[in-house]
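so ive been stuck on this for like two days lol. basically i have the seq below and the ligand is adenosine-5'-triphosphate, smiles is in there too. i just want the complex predicted, nothing fancy, no docking runs or whatever. if the output looks off dont worry ill sanity check it later, just need somthing to start from for the group meeting slides
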Amino acid sequence: ADRMTLILDWFVNPDHGPILVAQELGYFDEAGLEVEIIAPADPSDPPKMAAAGKADLAVSYQPQLHLQVAEGMPLKRVGTLIATPLNCLLVLQDGPVEEIADLEGKKIGFSVAGVEEAVLGRILGTAGLTLEDVELVNVNWSLSPALMAGQVDAVIGAYRNFELNQMEIEGRPGHCFYVEEEGLPTYDELIYVANPETMDADMIRRFLGATEKAAQYIVNHPDEGWALFSGTARELQDELNEKAWADTWPRFSVTPAGLDAGRYARFEAFLHEAGLIDEVLPVSDLAVDLGAE
Amino acid sequence: MRGALRPLLPALALLALWQGIVWAAAMPAFILPSPARVATALISNAGLILHHAGVTLAEVLAGLALGALAGAATALAMAVSPLARSLIRPALVLTQALPVFALAPILTLWLGYGLWSKVLMAVLIIYFPVASAFFDGLMRTPPGWTDLARVMGAPGRRILWHVRVPAAVPALASGLRLAAVYAPIGAIIGEWVGASQGLGYLMLLANGRAKIDLMFAALIVLAVMTLLLHRAVGWACDRAVARMG
Amino acid sequence: MRGALRPLLPALALLALWQGIVWAAAMPAFILPSPARVATALISNAGLILHHAGVTLAEVLAGLALGALAGAATALAMAVSPLARSLIRPALVLTQALPVFALAPILTLWLGYGLWSKVLMAVLIIYFPVASAFFDGLMRTPPGWTDLARVMGAPGRRILWHVRVPAAVPALASGLRLAAVYAPIGAIIGEWVGASQGLGYLMLLANGRAKIDLMFAALIVLAVMTLLLHRAVGWACDRAVARMG
Amino acid sequence: MSAPAIRVTGTAFLGEAPLFSGLDFRAVAGGWTCILGPSGVGKSTLIRLIAGLETGARFDGTVAASDDAPLEGRVAWMAQQDDLLPWLSVAQNAGLGARLRGTGADAAAIAGLLRRAGLSDHAAKRPAQLSGGQRQRAALARTLMEDRPVVLLDEPFSALDARTRAEMQDLAFAMLEGRSVVLVTHDPGEAARLGSRIWLMGRDGLAEMPLPAAPPIRRVDDPGCLEVQGALLARMRGTP
Amino acid sequence: MSAPAIRVTGTAFLGEAPLFSGLDFRAVAGGWTCILGPSGVGKSTLIRLIAGLETGARFDGTVAASDDAPLEGRVAWMAQQDDLLPWLSVAQNAGLGARLRGTGADAAAIAGLLRRAGLSDHAAKRPAQLSGGQRQRAALARTLMEDRPVVLLDEPFSALDARTRAEMQDLAFAMLEGRSVVLVTHDPGEAARLGSRIWLMGRDGLAEMPLPAAPPIRRVDDPGCLEVQGALLARMRGTP
Ligand SMILES: Nc1ncnc2c1ncn2[C@@H]1O[C@H](COP(=O)(O)OP(=O)(O)OP(=O)(O)O)[C@@H](O)[C@H]1O
Ligand SMILES: Nc1ncnc2c1ncn2[C@@H]1O[C@H](COP(=O)(O)OP(=O)(O)OP(=O)(O)O)[C@@H](O)[C@H]1O
Ligand SMILES: [Mg+2]
Ligand SMILES: [Mg+2]
């Protein structure tokens, strides 16, 4: 079997369902792959490792990909793990913010990833506000605690499948403004990236084929999928993960290799408009459809 | 302070090493940019970096002053009272044993995201080396001196102040030199946990935007700031120790 | 080591304080869980925690040994040669001034995600206090002793070894006591950068999963580990210092 | 201030072996009591016992003043090592007692004393910049600044040349008039000059030695003094 | 090993003021040269100059051996302070030179020397557990273990009682036979007993003193010795 190294974006969590289920069901074996899965703590590391050739594949985020390619990192999207945004603007359900316009003069927490200001600027724009009308606070490690503790009135960068459930379990339910419903071009939250110069396209194709089978299996049998996923590690078996699983599996891409070029072009244009990138690159510089080659 | 120029030599050596690594290991720029790229980023972002550096410097200086005071006071308390010693010492170790990273979110939630959470982080991180080194020094007073002071009828408090403290100044200086290096780390950690300005924030932001050269530029400024602080504190300590004969 | 039991008193005091804060400030459990909740999490996850603790302990011990050796060796090099001093000292400060987090990608790129990147992180973090404290001690040898040794015709190397080093043992001990507390922090930071086991991994994981009680349970175990290590090193150092008369 | 007589009785052990046993030491009230004896016999230990300090030996016995009041707070002590504080100037070292008790040091008194001790030119120096004899004189000045009825001097003049030694003896005798002074010395002439009572300490206990006829302080060339000095020397050398 | 004579000429300054000027010191080859003088006159400074050590003074002059070879590596030095290493036992301190040079210490020689210095019972003790005189004897033993043609002794017997002092003088004289010894002392009797040449050091320079007729080492009660002792004492006291 061919050995390949995959770096997740973070610790194992329900977002990684297809990967772990493929592993459990032996789909990688069937595809002639022996996949080593590494879980880092800092989500900004994996794309670097992939670009540096230290990993064959990394799980990353579409918005970051645009910035990284603009800065010259040899990276391309080769597959999709979660095909919708997960990011949301989170507020307390019984809090003072009922619509975007209520954010005026409020504190908004974020965890630095690079695009928050652009995303927020667009969302606020739909209500006629600008970044000047709010106070931004970097709360790095703890989005929902900062919100629940009342340090901030809203947070951006929270995951709808995760923080919402967490808050519910803690008894302070939250409300999510979905970014793609508030003016942002939709995008793929989790993608697979690789170094286009060094990657082994055939191996990645086989990898994506295996996760495609796993994603289909999960969509067809979500409960069995959960059992398989949570069976991989004792730490995964808890209420939060179980709830998150239910909110996550419908978002797994069942066509992981498939590329919607328009999504990438629109998001590139959005970032250019927001001033985060200097020039608009063609989609072919950002992403590749391995199935089409 | 002509000696302040001498670190230029090792700085050059380091630069050479850095450039060497970049060439030899064919380091991609997004992991380790070349010195030239970083220099460019440094110059073209000078205003931005300077602004954030100023914020961090203020946090560091406040943290250093408060942390040194708190550490020294703790060492004194432990030195006078065996009870305080057995109570405080494990607590002191605990303040370090619990990684500030783990406590940082809690502290930040209490103190908010302003200056003080960073100052507190710097204080927490330098508190222990200062207290520990000073305490060790206080417990090593040559017995002849304390014997003499006791026969002279000095109360313990004054023995502490006039004999044990001066005798422990070199040890305190040792702790302060460490503190000068750790205080910036504390402030940076504080900024990572939650801030909207400062070099730590700038580094996170640059990293998030894949501007690794900007991140390294901020890093360099931080390093230079630390070096200068270490030199200044070292110089002051050397003078104090020399005065202690 | 009956003294090892004495920290129980402050530990109890700390527990009471903790419970007090939880009650008084009506702390929500997702910020600061009550001791009882943490105890429950500790017991029900005992096996899991123990496994991860074992991994971290191994990293810490390896890091402590290597870091202490490296730090002591550096101090010795600086003590013998003024050239080495002016070259190494700024570099030494630099190893601390550059936050390890920023260097982590580079280090992991070289060392991978295994044991050694954590050990290296622990080494990096304790290297400085050991080197710094020991060096300070080496530079404070009473001049009468070095005068005597020189007249006796001892080469500098042997003066270092037989006079300056023994005279600096208390200072080295001071540095090692600090190192005992910092080594676990280093390992934890290393685990945060990338690991699949260890207490640091468990803490981040638990934090990310909002299992704050499990995170605190891991934290407690880490704290206890650090306390015991500090005690063991302190005890060994006290013996060594006592033997130095 | 009335200076008490002092009595020390008892036995001291070093580990299991006795250092001295059945000791019965008496110091005269308001005068100088001198102790001579071979090196290592326990003279400094005795002095430290009177000062109320820890010793290397375990002591089984009593230390008492003739007025039955505790000695604590009534003793000044000059150790065999000078124990000057290296970060203080000579003048500050001389005023250490006052500084440590928080009473203001009398600068004029210090200056006067340092002048008489020949240290005027060195008052601002640190101890590390002094010669051995200068250090000893600084420590003596510090002890003389203490206004205590009982004064314990452990070989206070050992690092001084003959002339300076005689001057310092004169100075100390004048300054300590009326106090009970215990002096450990290796110089029989010194004991003969200053002693109101002279003890020879040996492994087998204390022996009282005869005194010159003249009252202390005696002239260095006082014939009685020289005679006693010779006798002490002969006794100490073991040549009867 | 042939022991050279030594000559020191020059001027030493403390800051701007001269400590001693126009000094012309000569030590005899293979014998004891004694230096007496008031405290602070510069005796230890002179000794340190010969030893090739830093001093508190700035020295303008030369230190030369009669064989024109450098003195470095040919000198043993016993400082005025004992400078024992606190972490070594007495025996280990005595063997320090060999240890520092990396040549094996001769355990039998050390044991023998410690026995003759009366320290057999204390060989395993740390310096902190010794009396003042025992510390000084340990430092002396350490110096005597050094096999060097030139030996500098800075008040080596000052903390000893008369008997032990005479014994140590005998011991040192026997052990150092044939070497050039420079002895700083405050005891005129000691100088009279040991000196092949005796210098009186004063603010105005060195003066050579007459010697007893008998060759050293003289008996403590040698009449010529006592006479010279008396003359030295009178001269030092300034009573002509
Ligand atoms: N490090 C120093 N800095 C300044 N002055 C010094 C220093 N060391 C010694 N002196 C001064 O130099 C002079 C000579 O000192 P030295 O030690 O040689 O005297 P000495 O003759 O040995 O006296 P003693 O018999 O008291 O030991 C003294 O006045 C002393 O104060
Ligand atoms: N801390 C200690 N531990 C063990 N033994 C000690 C200690 N201090 C002193 N001694 C021993 O006690 C004995 C008496 O010591 P002390 O200092 O009283 O002697 P001394 O009469 O003052 O001698 P000297 O004239 O040499 O100063 C000595 O044999 C010494 O070795
Ligand atoms: Mg004594
Ligand atoms: Mg001298």
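Residues D 43-44, 80, 154; E 131-132 surround magnesium ion (ligand 3) (CB under 6 Å). Chain A has a mean pLDDT of 89.
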